Amino acid sequence: MAPPIGNDRHTSGHTPGHTRRALLAGVAAAGALGAAGCSRVATASTTSGGELLDRLKAQGVVRLGIAGEIPFGYIDRDGQLTGEAPKLAEAIFKRLGVDKVQPVPTEFGSLIPGLNSQQFDVVAAGMYVTPERCAQVIFADPDYQVLDAFVVRKGNPKGLHTYKDVVAKKAKFATGTGYAQIQHAVDAGYKQSDILIVPDQVAGLNAVEAGRVDVFAGTALTTRAVVKKSAKAESTTPFAPLVEGKPRIDGGAFAFRPTETKLRDAFNAELHKLKKSGELFRILRPFGFTKAEMTNLTAKELCAG
């Protein structure tokens, strides 16, 4: 992970963490598009609430910062932008009068710096809303919520269902670079130096299948997606990790520069219409989201910790 606090993965939680690296095909294609997508956007707004929305309408395109993580935002094997956040962005920005979205692939830890240095207009990467990040950017309300889950060998021979189980049974534990699950395990009593850090969920699955570790931790979304074709591994039932002794449910959302409240508020208004109509679930469902991931959480309550 370990980029500076607040710039780490969603993908989870309250500390450097989350959610989510790309599959190899997505990474390769994203790299090919990266050079073309890195020119800077116009200078920061000087008017109250920001004038970015007006500029986006005039130019007809919005630049999305993505981190190449399935299912949140990535480039597919055909070189096309996809994922829950880009597809949701397409729907909402079209309603706002902006017909085209353009990906700007970057590392997850570079999303907030890239947004604030105006390399793109909005972060569309399913980023977890945390107090640390809320000090650097402003968030729309979450478009999804998610619990943690484990990848374990078929039959879950060690009976690993929570981080406390991992500690109690002295299981060999792995999670992804920059995942919040690192801190979740540490909070449960697992020694951080004993955690195997792997690049992404695919590497985590490989480690479990090969017997190098007993468990890989990620979001319920990423773990159930990665084990679909595995004959050796399965995903456990999702659970809420304990943060300061209380169950924690994380939510992912779009991030905007602090000056662009007008754009954030307009985006939020359309997001809530999609939630109310059920269209949000129809957009997210093809990427493995279930009704359990739909949420009424707000950015305000998640920013408060």
Automatic annotation (TrEMBL):
<dbReference type="Pfam" id="PF00497">
    <property type="entry name" value="SBP_bac_3"/>
</dbReference>
<feature type="domain" description="Solute-binding protein family 3/N-terminal">
    <location>
        <begin position="61"/>
        <end position="291"/>
    </location>
</feature>
<protein>
    <submittedName>
        <fullName>Ectoine/hydroxyectoine ABC transporter substrate-binding protein EhuB</fullName>
    </submittedName>
</protein>
<dbReference type="InterPro" id="IPR001638">
    <property type="entry name" value="Solute-binding_3/MltF_N"/>
</dbReference>
<keyword id="KW-0732">Signal</keyword>
<dbReference type="InterPro" id="IPR014337">
    <property type="entry name" value="Ectoine_EhuB"/>
</dbReference>
<dbReference type="InterPro" id="IPR006311">
    <property type="entry name" value="TAT_signal"/>
</dbReference>
